[in-house]
């Protein structure tokens, strides 16, 4: 086994066992390599199918992803002002919001990782949008977008879908 492969194996073990996210700079010190090497290792580990997410606190293997094996896409529509309500509905009903995708007429599909599973993460996301004066992807498509969500099973997904429909968020 090559040096990089050994490091990535140990890195994956480190992230899997960690109680909280670990910053790339801290990981780089453990292995005696640059932060950029760790960022590259994370990319390789992700390409191998590992569910590693980046947060502002560092990298983690999200337990919610492990506990929620059913992954499905759902098309929704709402205004920018309804974003918090939509994300809260998803999270309160046990979904983990992995990503958002829009169909752009020039660029095709544009996807952004969200990795939102708690109300705190919703608030962090919205605060980051506001602080950095950024636009939401849904603003490019008149509110229509697709979320990739993780949940327990098909029945759980149907429950979530029904809640979205009740609120008028489900796109038909």
Molecular structure report:
The protein is of the alpha+beta class and 172 residues long. The protein has seven helices and six strands; from the N terminus they run αααββαβαββαβα. It has helices at residues 3-17, 24-31, 35-47, 63-67, 83-92, 119-131, 154-167; strands at residues 52-55, 58-61, 70-77, 96-104, 108-116, 144-151.
In brief, what are we looking at here?
With 172 residues, the chain is an alpha+beta fold.
Element-level helix/strand string: HHHEEHEHEEHEH
How many separate helices? Answer: 7
Give the number of DSSP strands: 6
Q: CATH superfamily assignment of the largest domain? A: 3H domain
Main sheet specs: 4 strands, antiparallel
How many angstroms does the end-to-end distance come to? Answer: 51 Å
What integer is the average pLDDT? 91
**Sequence stretches where pLDDT stays below 50 over 5 or more residues:** none
- Which CATH class of the largest domain applies here? Alpha Beta
Approximately what portion of the residues adopt beta-strand conformation? 15-25%
CATH topology of the largest domain: Histidine-containing Protein, Chain: A
Structural class: alpha+beta
Core attributes:
Histidine-containing Protein, Chain: A, Arc Repressor Mutant, subunit A, 172 residues, globular, 45% helix
